[in-house]
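pls design
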């Protein structure tokens, strides 16, 4: 795996997560290592909890080892990031990735941000910590480093997007659920390689507005259309490659609606950009159990029961390998 290349600015990173920039320290050099786990031969999926020292703090993450894990084979890895105030175990329950991982054969890692936040700068910055986690998982298990993906909800979706900017030489693709880009970050986002991107967003989201503008936290974001157009340009997608299809959808209150999927195809290195629009949908994870609010960033509004975000993220991203170095 190549070293991460970045022209990333502290202010831009902090702006997307609505966190104050930390100019007092540079990102800490990754240190620490994992412990425990299994070396292979598991017939049923299982979770392993790792505790490591990073930036002077004990950090925890959960690794889901898929059913039937065989160390002689090579497995994809999906990193999942919760919303503001959430936990790794909470977003694990919310997304249901473990069931898909056991059926399809891939690893999932669930992080917990310090105090429920994702911090892009400082001694405990989560960009470097993400690198440490990936390296530790690769040392412990048989991981295919060309098939690593990031996904997240709300603030965690925005952080997955930041990883798309800063770690495109580590991740083959990312998915942002109920998050968006903003102008400051966009002006400083220079992915080292093409990277596939997926977005899921409800038109009635009161926390991060579908059409852009002021968020509930007071920051200002792009509209979803501006967000996907930014990534289409970043991936050199042909100007005339965008197509939109409509589909029948249902919401958690029993109502039926018509959703849409906009796809930019023919992009660099075989990547694509996708936007799933949930008509009348709220600030939620499509297809999730509405009785579980474990993802952080209090869920508000209706959830799609027809669009299964977790299944689609795996279905669309898993065939894609890390793009060649430019």
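designed seq:
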């Amino acid at each position: 795996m190549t070293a991460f290349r970045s022209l990333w600015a502290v202010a831009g990173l902090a702006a997307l997560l609505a966190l104050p920039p930390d100019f007092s320290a540079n990102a800490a050099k990754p240190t620490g290592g994992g412990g425990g786990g299994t070396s292979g031969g598991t017939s049923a999926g299982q979770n392993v909890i790792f505790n490591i020292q990073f930036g002077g703090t004990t950090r925890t993450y959960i690794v889901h080892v898929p059913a039937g894990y065989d160390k002689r084979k090579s497995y994809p890895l999906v990193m999942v990031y919760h919303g503001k105030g959430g936990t790794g175990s909470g977003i694990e329950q919310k997304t249901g990735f473990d069931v898909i991982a056991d059926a399809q054969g891939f690893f999932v890692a669930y992080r917990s941000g310090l105090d429920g936040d994702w911090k892009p700068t400082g001694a405990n910055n989560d960009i470097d910590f993400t690198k440490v986690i990936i390296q530790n998982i690769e040392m412990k298990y048989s991981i295919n480093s060309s098939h690593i993906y990031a996904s997240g909800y709300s603030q965690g979706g925005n952080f997955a997007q930041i990883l798309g900017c800063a770690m495109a030489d580590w991740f083959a693709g990312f998915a942002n659920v109920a998050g968006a880009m903003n102008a400051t970050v966009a002006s400083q986002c220079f992915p080292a390689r093409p990277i596939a991107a997926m977005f899921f967003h409800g038109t009635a989201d009161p926390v991060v507005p579908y059409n852009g503008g002021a968020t509930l936290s007071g920051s200002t974001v792009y509209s979803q259309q501006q967000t996907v157009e930014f990534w289409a340009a970043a991936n050199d997608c042909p100007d005339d490659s965008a197509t939109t299809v409509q589909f029948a959808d249902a919401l958690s209150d029993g109502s039926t609606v018509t959703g849409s999927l906009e796809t930019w195809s023919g992009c660099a290195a075989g990547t694509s950009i996708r936007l799933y629009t949930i008509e009348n949908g709220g600030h939620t994870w499509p297809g999730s159990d509405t009785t579980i609010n474990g993802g952080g960033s209090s869920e508000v509004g209706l959830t799609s029961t027809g669009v299964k975000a977790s299944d689609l993220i795996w279905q669309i991203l898993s065939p894609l390998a890390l793009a060649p170095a430019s």
